Amino acid sequence: MGIRSFIAIKVPDLITPQVVKLQNSLKEAPVKVRWVEPQNLHFTLHFLGDTDPQEIPDIVKKIKEEVGIFAPFSLNLAGVGAFPREGKVKVVWAGVGRGRQEMQKLQPLVLKGLEKAGIDIGENRFHPHLTLGRVKNKSNTRPLRLLMEKERGFSSSDFSVSSIQLMKSQLTPEGPIYTVLEEICLRGETLDN
Questions:
Q1: How much is the pTM?
Q2: Most buried one in 31, 73, 122, 158, CB count within 10 A?
Q3: Active-site pick, 8, 9, 19, 42
């Protein structure tokens, strides 16, 4: 049986209270949203889906070969948005300010490593963001959009990204449980492309 997995950057504990404060202010909207639990906050670099446990060592090895040259970088959250941009909100997210360019350079390296490990990455459009919640009842999301507009200027403290994680996602009725399977350190020089 496969392991449901994804490659991510975990949000450090230092930043979590700032994100929770933002979620709490958005919760004032009378819209049913499943908010991401504080311990589950992460940036998804690529969702793998069901992965054969036997393939994991090779996946990690190939990603390390690609991202090992990437230097740690600073990141902060900036702004609030939604998917889709217009109409009824499905997903509420916080954007990336500082570190956005670095994340956009890092993500293709992850994909290159996955391809070298024989993983079909499919079609991939990457939009750096931190999912805050998923709307459950989309009948009227206008009050949520109004609160998001009020929080447009949100920004978090800076934090350092010095590793990425291969995560396991276990779905339960209470929500997903995420476990770090492997941590891949960023040690090198950032490439200027």
A1: 0.92
A2: 31
A3: 42
